[in-house]
């Protein structure tokens, strides 16, 4: 089988086109491949739900990854959806495994303990343990040891940009050593730069440049093994500039729906907002409580709230069907999880200068895609496509027998 590389460049946006299209690696790929100038993501535009959509062709209401985190209000720091078994239904990994194709996943979200032959999942120790010891348990057997020897993977790996550097080296090593049929990589430096510095500026441009250079180096190495392979580059979401954090759980606490201690830790609740940064979901003990809160929220006219989606709107958003309401922030604002302090964003400056989680149809907020290799049409430009169409495109290309995808694939294949 012709090997396929699927590379997610986290947070590279359609608005970054002027920067990336002149970087040699991307420029050549645009000339020789199919370029999707705008990929419309899914709601909420958070890394884990979107990556689950990328490998399933389904929305969060059926794949089950509804946020990056699991709602665990009793925990100071909630668990991430790291584990592949959290994913409901079929996926590219599962279908490839059934077909006997070999797969490699490098820092791919929601992949830990998945049916993946060479798997270094995106997980990190959260209480000072050694990265290598922690990750060995959740990676495919023997793979961390192999990488430690082959590419000098060390305990510094969870930091940026070292982790992208490791991923690229690990991809090259693994291809040379095992030639997996499908390699999936998640590159996160651009997302990190946008969070820290805001979505636009020289630091972000530099990160995009570095990523272009890393990919150039990777494929120069792959070319030494074979030139017969396909590449699908895509991003998961863009970011918007942020300055203020709205604390809806502090607002619920003030009205008695939620009880929190002095540190903002939730002790009990009849209703709680679960932050997805640019959006937030309301969970409530029943529909009456949700309706009460919706009415009060509309009356309160809190600065920075752009849209309130009613219970009846939730199914159409294709988000967590157990949520009662969704709220959407205006550009500049995010929702915090804390029940402490003031609800008003003006009192709560954000730590991050860029963020995501907003509705995928928000202006200047698209993702992108770029596919090249012998299987793809050359010199084709698609102005806009939907990310939900990605997995069925891979399915059509490799005849994986992927089950449950909601749409047909894109017209990008020869
Ligand atoms: Zn992301």
Automatic annotation (TrEMBL):
Gene3D superfamilies: Alkaline Phosphatase, subunit A. InterPro entries: Alkaline_phosphatase_core_sf, Phosphodiest/P_Trfase. Pfam families: Phosphodiest. This is Ectonucleotide pyrophosphatase/phosphodiesterase.
